[in-house]
């Protein structure tokens, strides 16, 4: 028989839950208070015959007293606790952290799967298994679920929000979610289960993973240095994806809490400030057991639920393996509609109502497809093993309607979603890479240096980390942009996706992978230091490396330039690996040239003194990473001495000085050389051409909302 918590602590909590004192229990049992006290303190345990009397006194069955894997149901029933309004009259009209992300299941997949990877139990060597379940409820199934979450107690709060939505964004989303449920008679649940993960361990209130997720904002307590998250914002995507602002949680713990590990349940609701029956409420609410240790037993805490309760809440886990299940109630996927009309002239976005667009943000088939796409795009590397290296992740997606299968469970296969990159990474693990591509299907590798700066603003280099670059031909890649580098670190989530500029004409399509930090191998020099540095260089979206506040504070304002240098080195190495070998001159070419006579005019005498090159033509586009990519032509007056010039990129503004952008890369194409950002021209040159890409981390605003100005300046470009 499964046993849970020690008898003494369990009995003490049951007395609090039932509102009984030790003396009252002793009187009911016909025993002394000292006997009950001895049970509480662990000095003795009751005889089996007394267990029956204790169960009767607590209003439960004798099995619950013997196993102690759940609380008794007597007294203080599970309920909703709504945080009271602030005494100073302040109002929170929504959780600001949720505004960091869109209501997008692909963003949700990226953040939640990253969290599961970060919490993987590593001692057993097995991958973390993540399952996404879309479940549409209608009819009786919907009614039963609403009853389980005490919907009648929540409805006055939703009504209060709907009555005061006005121009308040969160209120409008919530109001639309409630209306959809009633008008269309449906509710979409999106559950994210992970297994072989740590689970939400720790106390309800003290420092720990549970409190960090359920009680707090902007707190990240990840399990290892290679973790993807660092801001504590990723959990907000759970509530952002719920049109009702409601998430239920069931966790199986890897470390016992209160003597137990299974079915630790809590719910959290995120609503804006509201007033119900004349009483103000601050915003969040929690679904749980009233805590007898709080004033008036008012605050709700997690509770150890029974199997029947988790089944009614659609939170049943498939095994007792540690991990957590998050149930997003009222899931919607606004981003799936592409319902923004963009005006390129004024740079604004206008939302088009769902009814006018003809889409459905709650289409579980479409959401299923978008989840599979996102997981295959962002986590393909974590699902790959080979050469004795095991995958870190297994992930699947399924869709149900009232318990019946709508879309069968589909395990995401990296060889289907990312065939070329999968081939490249497996070849690296199995040691079958080559130095140069000469045949179809080969994978070429190079090491690329990342010079890590000293912390604290000190000048110098801590050490050089050798990142691993893999390049292979792009074959059978469905709907995947070609000629891109996917960069990733320890947890093998794709962080950065960027095209390679200035490729030679006729380059065969390819795909490239950059392994940095512990992804390059735990034995790689300065792997942990590279993890720390690059993690600090990621924004909350974890979709690029560049200038961040943390990077500036811990290293220096110019530390991000080390990453720019890495990018330049990577692009240079890729161009070398994919360049076609130059063919030798054709037979007879030189003889034919000598046989031809071309009359030329005598050269005019060049004027004395230095001449200044002039920008003569400019072609600019916006790259996949949001950078400006330019190709510029330069005309040069006739002269023996040509002044070196500095290309300067600026943003066009209506008034004031133009903000200057940094170059991520400058490449000479013809008639010039680039040295430390300066263009130098050989004597006698009349025309030159160069290419450049701006550094997106130096852009003060989004590229699509700006206009670019490029100038050539003499000297150092000041």
Textual characterization of the structure:
The protein is elongated and about 115 Å long. The longest helix is centred in the C-terminal third of the chain and has 18 residues, at 561-578. It is built from 20 helices and 30 strands. α2 (22-29) packs across α3. With 718 residues, the protein is of the alpha+beta class.
Percentage of residues assigned to helices: 25-40%
Q: How many beta-strand elements? A: 30
**Main beta-sheet strand count, sense and barrel state:** 12 strands, mixed
> Termini, distance in Å?
79 Å
Query: What does the overall shape look like?
Result: elongated
Catalogue the unreliable spans. Answer: 222-232, 339-358, 583-600
In DSSP terms (H or I, runs of 4 or more residues), the helix count works out at: 20
What is the average of the pLDDT values? 83
Query: What would you call the structural class?
Result: alpha+beta
């Amino acid at each position: 028989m499964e046993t849970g918590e020690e008898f003494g602590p369990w009995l003490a909590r049951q007395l609090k839950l039932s509102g009984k004192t030790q003396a009252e229990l002793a009187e009911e049992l016909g025993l002394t208070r000292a006997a009950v006290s001895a049970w509480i303190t662990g000095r003795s345990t009751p005889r089996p015959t007394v267990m029956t009397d204790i169960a009767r006194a607590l209003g439960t069955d004798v099995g619950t007293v013997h196993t102690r894997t759940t609380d008794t149901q007597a007294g203080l029933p599970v309920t909703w606790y709504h945080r009271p309004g602030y005494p100073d009259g302040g109002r929170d009209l929504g959780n600001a952290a949720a505004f960091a992300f869109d209501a997008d299941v692909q963003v949700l997949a990226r953040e939640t799967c990253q969290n599961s990877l970060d919490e993987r139990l590593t001692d057993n060597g097995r991958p973390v298994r993540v399952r996404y379940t879309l479940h549409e409820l209608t009819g009786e199934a919907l009614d039963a679920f609403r009853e389980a979450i005490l919907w009648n107690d929540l409805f006055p709060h939703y009504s209060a929000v709907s009555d005061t939505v006005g121009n308040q964004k969160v209120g409008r989303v919530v109001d639309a979610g409630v209306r959809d449920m009633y008008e269309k008679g449906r509710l979409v649940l999106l559950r994210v289960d992970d297994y072989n993960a740590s689970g939400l361990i720790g106390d309800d209130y003290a420092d720990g993973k549970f409190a960090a997720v359920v009680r707090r904002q902007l707190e990240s307590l990840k399990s290892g240095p290679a973790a993807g998250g660092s801001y504590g914002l990723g959990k907000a995507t759970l509530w952002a994806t719920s049109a009702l602002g409601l998430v239920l949680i069931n966790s199986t713990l890897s470390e016992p809490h209160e003597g137990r590990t299974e079915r630790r349940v809590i719910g959290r609701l995120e609503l804006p400030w509201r007033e119900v029956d004349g009483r103000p409420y601050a915003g969040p609410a929690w679904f749980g057991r009233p805590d007898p240790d709080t004033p008036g037993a008012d605050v709700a805490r997690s509770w150890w639920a029974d199997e029947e309760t988790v089944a009614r809440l659609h939170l049943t886990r498939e095994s007792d393996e540690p991990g957590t299940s998050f149930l997003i109630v009222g899931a919607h996927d606004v981003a799936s509609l592409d319902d923004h009309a963009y005006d390129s002239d004024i740079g604004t976005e206008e939302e088009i109502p769902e009814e006018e667009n003809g889409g459905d943000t709650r289409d579980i088939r479409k959401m299923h497809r978008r989840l599979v796409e996102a997981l295959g795009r962002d986590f393909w590397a974590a699902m790959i093993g080979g050469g004795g290296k095991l995958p870190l992740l297994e992930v699947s997606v399924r869709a149900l309607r009232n318990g019946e299968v709508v879309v069968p469970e589909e395990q995401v296969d990296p060889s289907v979603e990312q065939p070329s990159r999968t081939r490249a990474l497996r070849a690296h693990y199995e040691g079958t890479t080559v130095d140069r591509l000469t045949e179809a299907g080969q994978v070429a590798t190079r090491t690329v240096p990342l010079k890590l700066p000293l912390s604290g603003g000190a000048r110098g280099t801590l050490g050089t980390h050798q990142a691993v670059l893999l390049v292979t031909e792009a074959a059978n890649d469905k709907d995947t942009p070609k000629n891109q580098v996917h960069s990733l670190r320890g947890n093998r989530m794709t962080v950065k996706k960027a095209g390679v500029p200035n490729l030679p004409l006729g380059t065969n399509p390819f795909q490239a992978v950059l392994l940095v930090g512990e992804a390059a191998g735990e034995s790689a020099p300065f792997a942990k230091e590279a993890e720390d540095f690059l993690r600090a260089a990621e924004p909350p979206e974890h979709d690029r490396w560049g200038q961040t506040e943390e990077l500036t504070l811990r290293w220096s304002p110019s530390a991000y330039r080390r990453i720019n240098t890495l990018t330049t080195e990577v692009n240079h190495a890729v161009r070398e690996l994919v360049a076609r070998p130059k063919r030798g001159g054709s037979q007879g070419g030189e003889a034919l040239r000598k046989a031809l006579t071309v009359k030329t005019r005598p050269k005019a005498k060049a004027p004395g003194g230095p001449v200044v090159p002039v920008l003569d033509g400019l072609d600019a586009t916006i790259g996949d990473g949001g950078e400006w990519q330019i190709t510029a032509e330069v005309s040069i007056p006739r002269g023996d001495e040509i002044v070196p010039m500095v290309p300067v990129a600026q943003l066009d503004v209506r008034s004031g000085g133009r903000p200057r952008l940094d170059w991520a890369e400058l490449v000479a194409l013809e008639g010039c050389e680039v040295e430390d950002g300066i263009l130098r021209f050989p004597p006698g040159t009349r025309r030159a051409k160069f290419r450049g890409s701006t550094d997106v981390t130096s852009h003060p605003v989004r590229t699509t909302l700006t206009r670019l100005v490029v100038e050539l300046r003499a000297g150092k470009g000041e």
